[in-house]
Amino acid sequence: MTKHVVGTIDEVAPGMSKLVEVKGREIGVFNVNGSFYALANRCPHGGGSLCKGVVTGLALSDRPGDYKLVRMGEFLRCPWHGWEFEIKTGQSYCDPKSTRVRQFNVSVEAGEELVKGPYVAESFAVAVERNYIVVDL
Amino acid sequence: MILPRPGAIDCDLHLPLPPTRALLPRLNDFWREQLTTRYIDRTNFQLQSYPVNSPIATRADWAASREGETPLEKLRREALDPFGTRIAVCSMLHGAIALFNEDMNAAIVSAVNDFVAAEWLDREPRLRGSILVTGQSAAHSVAEIERLAHDKRFVQVLLPVMSDFLPGKRQMWPIYAAAQKHGLAIGLHAGSTYRNSPTGSGWGSYQVEDYIGMSTAFENAIVSFIAEGVFNEFPDLRLVCLESGFTFVPTLLWRINKEWRGVRAEVPWIDRPPAEIVKERVRFTLQPVDAPRDPKALAKVIEHMGNDDFLLFSTDYPHGHFEGVDCLPEGLPDSLIRKILVDNPLAAYPRLAQELAREAAALEKAR
User: Fold this and answer.
1) In this structure, what CATH number is given to the domain that contains residue B51?
2) pTM exceeding the 0.90 threshold for the entire prediction
3) CB-based contact (8 Å) between B232 and chain A?
4) Is residue B114 classed exposed, middle or buried when 0-12, 13-18 and 19+ CB atoms within 10 A define those classes?
């Protein structure tokens, strides 16, 4: 596993995401309430660009005609067929056992530590005083 | 193939419509006067789904009565005795349900139900009835269910599969609440009040189009029940699709599960794959069997349906789907035949199950 620096944390505010490429793979980095998650930009259902989908909540109901949207910002809806995935786990909401989007380890590391290496910064230099999003791949 | 043993429960058997004048004694003075002075008693109230004398309305050898034979004797000779039927759930789909005057509609429908009880159920202990109701008025329908629910020989509430609106809609829910309360299944029967065209693109030219389109109507009805959340709201309710055919079921199950995954948020009360709900709550009568004669083809359909509980034995008398008493299609596994003939009907109709349990308990006590 190699650490890949993919961006600074202030580039991806809570509720936002960034699509990056690491070793030729497209990966979406998401900030959900201050925690970072990295998912393959490929829906396990039909292969759509999952990470370009809408970040939303989970629609639940106690009975017909009752509607609730909970856990706002924790789910990703694929732009192709609308399948919903929990960003935190990569699990499909409808088929959690057998449909899961690939996840990558992601961490936030201080530039001060990163400059000691080894790491791969794809397109920019790391400054000691900033915090970075790092994907292991 | 023929039935392997007597004692089956026939879940779709049709009673002949009485002449309307035979209903007059069961109407109050007002409606009797209306029907006679307006010559409505000369109308036969046959629904257009089965035009009188059309070849599919009655099997050729079941068309004529014998000299001096009553309708009940004819039914015993043709539909009950030859099959060794233990119980037959019968229906009388009467055209009064299509009357726009909902009060006249309700009055005639009540007379029909009373006629069925007095002229058929009272005289033939193997028959069980269906409470015919009009889908256009939930209030009248609920009143009719409440009026007759004490008579345990009625085991389901009967509606045509196509009516003014899709059957899962909330204005129908009082009917389902009443049915659930009294342990009655909801029976949707092939047919329409023809208020709306039987296809989504207007009227066909030929009866065959209506007839084949019925399976689409059943798919629409099942999806409506699921999407509207009828089964969530009424956890004990069973839906029986009568004369629906069943070979469309596998593709329906595949499709509703697939689409649910994409648009689930629209109907968030559906919190599991909808095919599971269909498997638990919806049943289909056996005849007509719309499968090729090759038994392997039917076996494949059954396998794709993926649920031994789905099918309920039916002859669909007097419609002609088989010759003689050859009422089971080739290709059904033995274990499934046992379930189709007795176990599944009992599970679909709580009142039948209770009745047989009471009988069994009485027998046990007598020993």
Assistant:
1) 3.20.20.140
2) yes
3) yes
4) middle
- Collect contacts of B269-277 with beta carbons under 8 A, ≥24 apart: B269/A61, B269/A62, B269/A63, B269/A64, B269/A65, B269/A66, B269/B229, B269/B232, B270/B226, B270/B227, B270/B229, B270/B232, B271/A60, B271/A61, B273/A94, B274/B226, B277/B226, B277/B231
Q: pLDDT, tens digit, for every residue of B109-155?
A: 999 999 999 999 999 999 999 999 988 899 999 999 999 999 999 99
Domain of B42 in residue numbering reads as 9-366
Q: What is the pLDDT of residues B154-205, one digit of tens each?
A: 999 999 999 999 999 999 999 999 999 999 999 999 999 988 999 989 999 9
Dihedral-angle region of residue A84 (phi above 0 means left; psi in -120 to 50 means alpha; beta otherwise): beta
Q: A59 and B268 in contact by Cβ < 8 A?
A: yes
List CB contacts (< 8 A) between B262 and chain A.
Answer: 81-83
Give me the phi and psi of B108, to 5 degrees please.
-70, -40
The answer to whether the CB atoms of B265 and A63 lie below 8 A apart is: no
Identify whether B102 is part of a domain: yes
Q: Domain total for chain B? A: 1
Residues 6+ apart with CB under 8 A from B106: B134, B137, B140, B143, B144
Interface residue B255 vs chain A (CB under 8 A): no
Q: Is residue B2 part of a domain?
A: no
